[in-house]
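User: quick one, sequence for these tokens?
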């Protein structure tokens, strides 16, 4: 009977090994959660820049005579816009490459608009 009482519990070494295995697995879970959070923040920043770009393209198309802005303060976030106008190879059509960026994300849009000036489509 004395022998059964001694064999019922865990030894200190077994408990320490179990805690070490648990700690290592918890570190893995923590690193996955941390990576997921960083990815979420990056995706939100990228979506913000894309939304600002679509908004700017919409404004430029609807108000073609409006001057291009270089910097815009959007709810405390500075959004930088840069434009490159090129010939598209089609008469009276310009290729516009617009880069939208904040301090943490950026993206590039390409769209086409009617070129200013000229005599028309060769008529």
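Assistant:
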């Amino acid at each position: 009977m004395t022998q059964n009482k001694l064999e019922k519990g865990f030894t200190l070494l077994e408990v320490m090994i179990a805690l070490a295995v648990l700690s290592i697995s918890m570190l893995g879970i923590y690193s996955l959660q941390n990576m997921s959070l960083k990815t979420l923040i990056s995706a939100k920043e990228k979506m913000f820049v894309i939304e600002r770009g679509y908004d700017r393209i919409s404004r430029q198309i609807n108000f073609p005579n409006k001057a291009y802005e270089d910097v815009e303060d959007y709810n405390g976030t500075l959004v930088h816009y840069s434009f490159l106008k090129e010939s598209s190879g089609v008469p009276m059509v310009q290729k516009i490459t617009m880069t939208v960026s904040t301090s943490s994300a950026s993206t590039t849009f390409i769209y086409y608009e009617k070129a200013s000036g000229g005599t028309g489509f060769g008529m």
